[in-house]
Fold these 4 entries.
Entry 1:
Amino acid sequence: MLRFYEIFSYLFLITTIVLISIGAVRAFHDFILGKHHEEQK
Amino acid sequence: MLGSIDLIIIFVMLALMLGLGNLFSRSVAHTDDFYLANRAMPVTLVICSLAATNMSMYNFISEAGQAAHQGVSIIWHEWTGNMAFAFCGLFIMPGFRRLNLTTIPEFMGMRYGGKAHSITAVMYALKSAGKLGLGMYLGALTGYVLVPQINFYWWLLIFTTVVGIYTFQGGMISVIFADVAQFILILIATLIGYTFVAAQVGWMPGIFEKSSADFVNFVPPAGKFDYKFIIAILFLGINAFCCDQGMIQRSFGSKNVKTLVVAMVLVGIILTPVNPFHFFAGLAAPLLNANAASMNPDAVMTQLYKSSIPTVFMGIFISGLIASQLSGVSAEINAGATVVAKDIWQRLRRTEPSGTEKLRFSRYMTIAMTMLMVFFALVSKFSGRSVVDNFLSLVGIFDTPIFVVAIIYGLKGSRINEQGAIAGYLGGAAVGLAAITVCQIYQIPDFLWWITVSAFLGSLIITPLVSRFFAPPDKEQVAKIRLSDKGTEEEWYRIIPRSLPGKITLGVIIAGGAIFFLGIVIGGMGSMHASLFAVGGMVIYFAGCATRLLFK
């Protein structure tokens, strides 16, 4: 049970790191392009 | 072990943080950019920002150090915090977000009046300074223990310079983007730290087999982190996530109510499987170091990580550790500066300052808060108490009465007037302060419970009592706030769901919460099944919160 939980936690953590990194790069890219300012205009 | 390559990694990370502030300084055109990242942040950024602010060296070092001393039950400090994240996101923050506020003192002004606004602002600035000092003290202490070639005061200077400059330049925009980078680093550091420690004691099964039964009891009937602590810290978590300026400023930076609700629920769910990595590493400390029980709880984990993690990984780990601390500190600096600039300075001026003046003053206040942080870091160093004890006392005294006055009586109630609110806020804090003094004199271990209960009951009773002697509040203002809390028919989200599946998910949330509380109560009676009920209830609660997002 504990072994299963540990493997699940590792997989969860690694997946979170990958997904957050992708999301962050996209948000950073959008921000630098000034999209949010354009949308407001 | 720490090598030259590790030092290079650490200083490259610090240089990148500085560069980030410079990059975003050009995007800061007016004060809403500086305070709230222009209220334009999408879900991913709000999640990262809230999560990075919530995770700091306090988790890696202080809380895990307490786990090494007292056992695993301090994990509820974080798990109840995660439950509180979802609770505040679903039931409290939507009403606040619709009012387009920047600070809690501003809400107090809107709901009660000018005096309540001013008094809350001064109290908030004081609390921010205290929290900043604690955070920076822990950062510099950990830096010194890990890299003794650089002493405590130099670490204090390095961290202060980096975090001060990037917050000064880029305001909330650079704070939020730095948070994202820092959150990723924190997760990587979590992986590294746990892996090298757990590998030495047979991983998770080994930790649980070798630790005593009391140490791995999630809901102990007695001790510093017993069932009463769990109830108190759950309540303080709810207080923090809807009243702590550093937290709500990130929430208010969200694009709209939907972004805010989704982000707050997901933060709670994402962090819950991550937290055990820190606490279980703490449980491994006494198995690997026979002296762990007699060491300073704020130093146990630093020593353990230092002796367990090989070079290069150590550099990345320390970078993650530093990143976690800087994110919390930068949030608090920005929060303190916002309160002083917006709620004190702007209101004291007879004429409305121009946009450039506001922005300039906000930046000056960032410097002022940074200086106060250094002062309180030195006070913390000489206080002789652990960071966890100091932090819990601070939030118990400051956050509990403001929650009662702003949320229970202010956002959700309609009868209390300004005089009652001020008396309840200050009275509750005074009662909490008296409780901590008594606890210190008599060395009471479960001090958090007594501080929280005293401050809560103090403000809960004083507020309506004083309110009765003065005129009722402005009906129009109260009606506006009640309407904002309720939301309109057209909106995506309402606290009470409109659809049947939505109502079922609300039922699941309530059932999960009830099972969790049952676990805590039977834990107090010494039941063997308490851990199962408490943890199971929490999982059901989160399942309800996640599915609640799918239905109207």
Note: DSSP finds two helices and no strands in chain A.
Entry 2:
Amino acid sequence: MTGISSRSAGVILVPKPETSDYAVFDVVESVEKDPVEAQYLYSAAQDWEEIEGNDATALIERATREYWIARTVSHLRMAIRGLEESLEVRVFESTEEILGSRLTSEDVLNRLLVAPLADTSASVALARSALTHGFSVVASVLDELVELQSLLRRLTDHWLGLPDELFIDMPESKEEIWRTLVENHRLSDLLKSDNGDDFENKWNLLAFSFTRPQSRTGVSILGKELSLRLFPSDESERTPTGVQTDEAEPWHGHVERRGGSDHDTFVRVQKQIFAIAKGVSEGRDNRAEKFLRQLIKEQTSVSGGENYAVMSLCYIAQLCADMFRTDFEIMCLDLALQLKPFDARSLIQSGDHFKRVGKYEEALEVLEQARHSEGSDVATSSMADVYSEQGKHEEAIRIYKTIPDWNNKAAVLNAIADNLRKVGNMAESEAIYKSLIDRCRRGLLGYADSEFRALAGLAEIAKRQGRFDDALCFYEDILRREHENDRARLFYRLGLCNVFKLMEQYHAAYRIVGDVIVDYPFAMVARFIRGSILGLIGEEWNGLKDLPEGKGSRSGQEWLRRYYRGLLLFKLKRYEDAKKDLVEEISNTIATGEGKAILRLGAALWFLREGKVFEADSFLSAIPDLYDCHLQYLSLVLRLHSATQKKDREAVASLKRLIANLEVVDTKLDLAVNAIAEGDFSLAITYVTDALLKIAA
Amino acid sequence: MVPPVAKSEEKCRRCGASLSDSLRHCPTCQADAGAPNVRACRTDENLKALAKRFGDAQARASVKGCLEEFESLSRLIETQSGVVVSMPARMARSAMDDPNWLYTNYERLVGGRVRMPAGPGNDRHRFGVGGALFGSYASDIMYGVLSLTKMGLPTYGDLHCRLRSVTIDQRTSFLETNSYTFVSDYSIAAGEKLPVGYTACWRKRHLLVLAKVASLLSTGQSETDWQAILIRSDGKDRNNDDFVEAHIFEGFDKNAIESMIKHSDKKLSRADETDRDLAISAFKSFIGETK
């Protein structure tokens, strides 16, 4: 079926069935126009075109899409030419909305690439403006448009230089072919071709847009010719086609100040920060860096603005830490320290960064510097955290106790209680938590914020002791109440989610973690947990989407991604892939104490399935004392598995006795024990795999 | 083979051959004979009838004691009136964005390729209006309204574009009212001769206006009142519109636009509002560039 569409008028003439009449359909209003009214339809003379579709619906859909693309491209073109600020912002708003609903950024970007920009500076300025106003998607499109200009110019130069003879046998004109390329293909992808072959492969897809054989042959010849011109030498000597970045700009200096109230500024900065974080999360570091540079320039352009810039940098660094993008995190912190070399917050965050990436000496060094600036107590406490992270809990407790008046400081007491819990001193730990709760409830000064953390500590003890109902009550009690510290609430929600997981209430757990992801889109731990829940409910493939292969730097808690990913792959019977995450990467993973023990359990599982009991044993024997009843049970089941496979009767009997003395916290593990006893190792492994997926450190 | 053309009594000033009523150029020497709609208004018969209607209107105004207003309005129309084309916001935005934009009507664009949309019986009649008035060149006619200000008809678009007189005065004619109303009121069928005295060329447009509105004049009226008389619309239903219709032979580009303003009362969707404001903004820049 052929319709006639006008992109400027936003209408399509659709043939009426079994007649030679056409209906006039308004694609903007989604209504058929009155035929009389249609008589007054005016449009640009040049934009009526025939379009093909299987039926009227397909025609209307295509015309609608084309209208919105044309409109969005037109808006951006007009904005590039220059608009007053308020109108520019409305264009951003409308474009952002369309790009979030009707179209993709690629749709618009590819059309904007129809010809090189006469002057890229206007687009650069517009991208900055979009970002400043918080329209990150628009900013990204414009930014990419600018980035692709040099490649586009190169392609169009060669295109225009192609000899006319190449087009002689083709029914379509040179202009028509170019238009088809721009409208039906991902020109941006074509521009980013790595080499001649890559270019030709992408170019040849264009042939599918032509029906005549001579057109298709001609298109293929054009592709070869262009490929030769664009990539004249072989691959090793080819001209680099990577995206060119702008010349480095200074990080701070004068920029035009934007108007608006303090609130407007706050909202704008928030949006800018979000755009930067989004860039980092998508791996678009150049863009994120560019946006970051713009933000810092703006903030430092006013007197005293360095303080705000440092605050922004620290906040972005925190977001990067949440996504385990420790490389971008440290870049932000370095910048913050360049602006204010003795800023306590930057120093303490840097120390925390070094702690998470396993550079403990450097962490202590930076925190030592911080101790001499404003926040000495926090710095000391952070130094203790570094020891705690290394599993040196006694040393950590010793350092906490060097903080003046430590036994009257809620945060320090909580930290001490946490460390006591980790070394298995549950009674003493519990006593401190309870004392903190009591002090808080009595309204003692300085304890107001300590109750939630202490309750969470009690919840974790309950969880480790297999008292899941108690753990649930503690977390629910925390979350029922108002919180000033929103970030802490994130961890309590995840804590509750983990309890539900252990109780096999997966839907409740999934709902909580889903909400957390909505509220904290950059909190990767939440995604990892969701991935594990999906694995537990039989949606391993979906779960893997939350557990992508790691690309960024390694840091604390990132081990969870490898661990869960490995188990999901294991469940999918992709054992070789699982091996990489469960076994091979263990030595490179930063994890201590309980985390390391969990990783070793995962590795032992992998070897047991392979029947390699000695390798499994080497991991199991390296597991230290465990204070979590679920982990203890798991560890014993895996040892039992190994001993049974080895037919070590004495060990089997001993392990069975030990297991019998434990309270059953996971019925699947009990079933695993039975399966092992019956020699059904495969079934046992199935149960153990799920039990391992339920673990959440 | 030469396509058949309607013969006219008019002769080509260059070669003396008979001109066609429906062609702009002499079929023999291709000399420009002028827009056919304008030539149709300049026949002696029409001019005489128009002059008579004007004279009668003047006499009535005199009896009513508002001859002064009559003459003032006549002068105003002669010196200040122009043609305003109203267009949807999206169209105006597209016009201002595209350097090659050429305003033309739907009939002309699609008429050659597809049949006109079919509708109920009376619509078929209405589709015949263009043909009844202009014959085979109906698809070359763009419609506008005569206005004393920059405002046009809100029922036809969100933006009013007043055209530069110099770009259209040689190719624009006027009809006393909406062409549908006119064809319907006078029961004109295709091929029939039109009633005379109801159309005017650019230079005689004041005669047409005064012949039409003289009965509505009263003492003490000013320019504002006359604009309200000249263009009457409730902004909702085109059937309630009353105006002097302008017929422009062939399209125009954005260089022909003198002013572009929005209709202040009209409620638009957010998308249309953005399109409208973009069009106005771009128009302002465009005018700035060309000055």
Note: The beta strands of chain A are 2-6, 11-15, 22-26, 31-32, 42-44, 48-52.
Entry 3:
Amino acid sequence: MTSGPVLTALLIGGIAAITSGIIGVFSVLRSQSFAGHSLADIATTGGAAAFLIGVNQFWGFLVAGMAAAGTMEAIGVQRRRGRDIATGVVLGGALGVAALLLYLGTLRTSTTGASFSILFGSIFVVSPDTVPAVVGGGVVALLAVAVLGRRLLLASISPDLARARGVNLRLTGVVFLMALAVTVSLSAVAIGAVLSTALLVGPAATALRLTRSPGKAMAVSAAVGLAATWAGIWLAYESYYWPPRAHGWPVSFFVVALVLLGYLLSYARPARRPVPRSPHEEEVPQCSPA
Amino acid sequence: MFSSLIFSGFMANTWIAASIVAVIAGVTGFFAVLRGETFAAHAIPNGAFAGAAGATLLGVNVIWGLVVFAVVGALGIGAAGSRARHDVVTALALVVMLGLGALFVSVSTEYAQQAYALLFGQVLGVSSVEVAPIAGLGIATLAAIGLAFRRLMLTSAMPEVAEARGVSVRGMEVYFLVVMALATSMTVPVVGALLMFSLMIGPAAAARSVTARPGVALALSVAIALAIVWLSIALSYRTNWPLGFFVGVGGALFYLLGLAARTLGSGPRAAAA
């Protein structure tokens, strides 16, 4: 349990879990789970491109995620339903490109293994060189959210009030999406692109069921994410001794299962007040396109 | 030589199957976009893909894995949707299915090749045996949507009025999600999970950005889906690049064209989704 790859896994997994936990609270409050998931899926396009040109996958995840966040915001109408459609269209296009890049990658190396490590992640083979980039990414994402601070919170909970106070909703939205793109790149490295949504949404949704204070929610969310990730890595390490063969079960599976368990447990404790539906749920025109 | 080969017997099944899939996607996608179920339209086919991995592991026909995962996922999203945040439940349903998929894939090592096909599609290798079930499914989907057409439109556009008239909004939502689940799970082995999603959202979003009239938008959505599929097959055949690439990029391009048309003022502003 103290070998190099495992320590690297614990470190990268921990950073990804804490960043995702904190940013996730905002993405759940803003009803942007779909955007978060799409950015992660789109990151696979970047991962495939990085694989093709032979650079570290993390940079591919990052560049593709940032580009997609910008595009979504550029064509996205601000209301939730329009935003989901814009997200869906960008996602559809990017997945097409991913199909092409993975196909070209398969031609070159005649293996499909790469698609799987990009999609589902393999935290035990992450190179230690990635650690500084991951630490930097986590710091940048958290700094961006810290700088936005109360403005982002207000814009997430009550866009109308935020606009009345002079908050630039569009700019806040873009910066947040960029931070989200960086965050999902981190967790895409840790537990795979398609499952990074689990770390982003699960702990945050659990925390928001347990507490009404945004600050506490961020702390609980980060703690739940961290616990699920570290326990998942430990279970995956142990599972080398489990049936059906000495092969090991994937970390991603354990992390997802633990995150789901946490969310279901939060239902055992009755919420003091019903979870508020976000203002985007009703078709309140929160911000007309500029 | 190109024109003779592309319409040969080997390719005929591909044209027929893909055209049926385009019609299914155009119709279900129209309602998915109208009802704001874009995320569910993404989550259900992708989650179903994990069911195929499970079926391979158990040694049963993949179609059973796809159907079971898709329908259970749809029921989960529909049932939990009213009690919690809709997008959170959809996201969790998706990652749980994919998490199981990751486990199945890691346990059965020979699955990787097939998984690539299920994700990105193998439409150029459709056999005539596969065409009949797809045709049957296409008719069933259109019938299921046709039967509930007015109620689906009403609950999508005016939920309050629908409730007042005694139409259950929740009931229609679960009904639609299950129809979408059955439709997509049967088409995933042919066109791939990712492509099915692109084909549902791109054409429907493009159609809705050009016109606000539901009937016209529905017809346009089907027409654009057919156009994208036909062009994509021809280009894919020519270049040998994956079909999913042309379909995904084609959907996004049509949407941008629709946006450009609206911005130039030729479409009604009310169509803004």
Note: DSSP finds 13 helices and no strands in chain B.
Entry 4:
Amino acid sequence: MIVPIGHVLLLALILLLLGIACVLARRTLIMMLIGVEIMINAAGLVAVAGSALHRQLDGQILAVFLMAMTAAEVAISLAMVVYLRRRKGTIIADAFDGMKG
Amino acid sequence: MATTLFYILALVAVISTLLCITRRNPVHAVIFLVHTLFALALIFYLLGAPLVAVWEVIIYAGAIMVLFMFIIMMLELAPTGAGEGIGGHHWLSVLLLSLAILGCSVGILTLDPGHSANLPDFYATPAQFGYALFHHYPLAVELVSFQLLFAAVGAFYVGRSTPTREGAP
Amino acid sequence: MNPVLLALIPLLPLFSAVLLMLFGLRLPRLAVGTLAVGAVAASTVATLLLWPAASGDGLLVVLYAWAAVTGLDLPLTLHFNPLSAPMTLMVTLVSTLIHLYAVAYMAKEEDVVRFFALLNLFVFAMLLIVLADSLLLVFIGWEGVGFCSYALIGFWYQEGKNADAGRKAFLVTRVGDVFFGIALLWLFALTGTLSISAINAQAVLLPAATVTAIGLLLLLGASGKSAQLPLMSWLADAMAGPTPVSALIHAATMVTAGVYLLCRFFPLISLSPTALLAIATVGGLTAFYAATCALAQREIKRVLAYSTMSQVGFMLLAVGAGSVGAAMFHLITHAFFKALLFMAAGVVIHLADGENDLFKLGGLSRKAPQVAILLVIGALCLAGVPLTGGFFSKDAILLAVGAHPETAYKILWLLGIISALLTAIYTFRLAYLVCAGPPRTAIGHVASPGLVAPLWPLALLGLLAGLLNLPPLLGGGERLMHFLGPYAGLQPEVSHLAEFGQWGLAALLVFVGWRIARSRWSKQPAAQEGARIDFFRSGWQIDTLIATVLLRPFSALCRFSSEKIDKVGIDGVIAGLAQCCRFGSSSVLRMATGRLSTAVTSMTVGVLLLMVWGLWTLLLR
């Protein structure tokens, strides 16, 4: 009985958009990954809110799985950032345009 | 009381994220992101998911963000962050784009009849959580563990150092 | 027996031509000449043998039933009647003599097989025109003579101007052929048959305006082949061919084919006084035009070419006045003396080692008297000296024109008189410049007998041709007119006074012309120069006129089409399409930057669009 579900979803929405803005506006790979993190968190918030609304635990379980998957993904992503840094000497995303044309 | 708490935490989360995405220094960005994660964890608790809240702090803020810190420190990306902040690159168009999407989404949200349904009083104990997890999703648990293994192996492989030549891994 | 003979008359030269084309290069020179001459001579003999069959309705022979289905019957027929018989005899006889002459004339030529093959092929085509009753055969022959003329004019094609002359002849006559073709198809559409005799029989059933139109079309077709106005510019340049070609094609046969066609169609065209007047006008104007041009020419063969044009104009004048008999009479006599003149001119050029400028020749009467005599005989016939063949035939024409009731014909008669005077003048000019005085160019060796011998029969025929159609005033029986019978057209009634008056006038004209020529050109003056002479020498600047009126706009149009429409327009459209594709693809290519930010931004914009659409759908509901 605390808040209407709409408000929780609105919060999640705002966080999602902030994550998108971070990915679009920042040029370095690290900042892009941070934006992705923000977005994933927003998704997790939606899952938990949904679980609370319907009085079921599936949403919470989803949130936990999201966290686990994020951990795995971040591990590989950061390894790739290290590799790319070693390769090009920079982590500005625009420097990697080998697919041009 | 929980209502007021929720709104305060929401505000904290949003402001903290805003600050996170506008920092030049990636270390500062990560710190602010940890702030957001803390706020979110408390919101999870208010929504009746204590286990998820705790795990949010331990795994997300405690492991993933620390990993970010490691990499940032290792690659010596601080304090300049490769020389630009939020003001460097099309920030106005990004802002407008985001506001547009926000507007549309809010519109869609308010048009939905169920959006004003109040959240019920709900609390999930760890026992209930564990039961549900292992009773309904045992396969998923196994798969997630495989996934973590793959991630570890992949990270080892991609990140290994090749001393003789630059180029293909 | 008779049908076979009739079929052999055109087919013998055809066989000879084919044999020469296939095997000629393997035969010795003598065999080639013998084959060519022999074929035409055999045709002459066949004509003579067949002569009795020509009286009355004549002999109709179906060569081949080309299209015989219900509703369509187009046999290929030959008709040997009082009109075609004399023409056939003239063509074959003159061709034989010219072939004999050509054997000697081309004795030093290498390409003699091609020459005789083409010459025989020409004779075949000409005989088709003369003998055919089916218009299809006439058209085949018509085109055939056109082609052979082109090939023979440009015989020495290695020199550019000879090939150009051949092309010019072909193209100009082609214009006339188009009109003839239209008339042919129109006649077929009207009457359902291609037989000339059948068409003539049905002519009275056709509406008057149609008959006039067809008559004018036939006149245009005839003008092309006969080098009359307005399609006459090719004849003078056609003298680039060898002399036997000029003698055969451009004196005796092809140029008379047009006149002959009109004579064949006389029952049709005589139903339209407008068409007849048009024919007479064209003939009269051409006679005058060509006579003025002949007076200004420097080359000997060009004088004779314009003279031919003028005389054929006289023949057309006769047809227009209604007297087919007079036209045929003049046609036959003209064939004799013009072929004689051409061949004699050829001998002169041969003797003078290729010199053909009148003002550089001379002294022929002293150096080669035999040739000079032959030349003078021809000149006398052409000028119309009394009692020669030319005198009687020309007078028959002028009488017929003068006796016509309409006033237009009186004007044409006057034009004819003036042209006759001019004829006399230029003929004697030619004779004096070539024969009189000391030779300005060395007249070399004696002419070979093979060259001169065929000319004597022609000279005799030219002089005595008057006997063919001697008017009753002199005791003759007008044999040609009687032979032609119903084909002779209208016979004007002339009083004896008018006839005497005409003869006296003609004699006077000849005398005056002779005196003028003698006073000006017997003492070998230099050639006259100046703009006025150039105007007449170039045929009243007809080539320039054609170039300005027809050729230049046409090539401008072609250039415009090629550069503006084709290059800029069509190519531009296609290149423009390619450019659009290139532009489109390069615009799209700019999106593939290979950068991550581009992809993410595009995705986000896509998400926005989806949300807008979702909102829109929800709002509508």
Note: Chain B has a mean pLDDT of 87.
